[in-house]
Amino acid sequence: MKKAGAFEVAYPVDRTKLKRVGITCVSFNLRKASRLVTRHYDERMEPSGLRSTQFAILAAIGRRKGISLSALADLLVMDRTTLTRNLKPLEKMGYVGFAAPTDRRRRELELTPVGWEALGKAYPYWESAQTEFLKEIGEENSRGLLKNIWRFMYGKRFLDA
User: pLDDT of 64-74, one tens digit each?
Assistant: First the structure.
């Protein structure tokens, strides 16, 4: 047993092995990178009034005329509970709403006119953040990064299409 501060501690894992976790763990490093990328986009998009996560949701909804919660959750690779929680502020702001149902079993989300306006206002800020980020990491690196992300998410079939 070693004394660590005021505690007697048995170290069941060598600290060198724990350092290796920080260097080699894919999950740990992707999460760190994700936080940095999100911060970059959020800072540049702040004048628009939308966070990058909100922008991504609005953009995903805007891609289609009417999208079910399940389809949107699949598109965003999000569970429905998390998606619903993220949609609530957008609904309160009047950016999204459910379209008049054509099928009572299927409710579809759409952007409202206010939502389209917010998306239009935010788009140039996103575009600027995107351009700046791609310039920072380089065009070839960005293509490689996206290719590897897409391969991981969608498999080889996506790249062959």
Answer: 888 989 999 98
C-alpha dist (Å) from residue 73 to 40, 64, 84, 109: 24, 14, 9, 12
What is the reported pTM? 0.82
Please provide the DSSP assignment of 85-136 as one string.
HHHHHHHHTTSEEEPPPSBTTB-EEEE-HHHHHHHHHHHHHHHHHHHHHHHH
Scan for tokens 């990064």, then name that residue.
145
Contact 51, 37 (CB under 8 A): no
DSSP state of 46: G
Q: Which residue has the tokens 């260097």?
A: 23
pLDDT in tens, 50-108: 999 999 999 999 998 889 899 999 889 899 999 999 999 999 999 999 887 666 667 88
d(CA 110, CA 60): 10
Decide: helix, strand or coil at residue 67.
strand
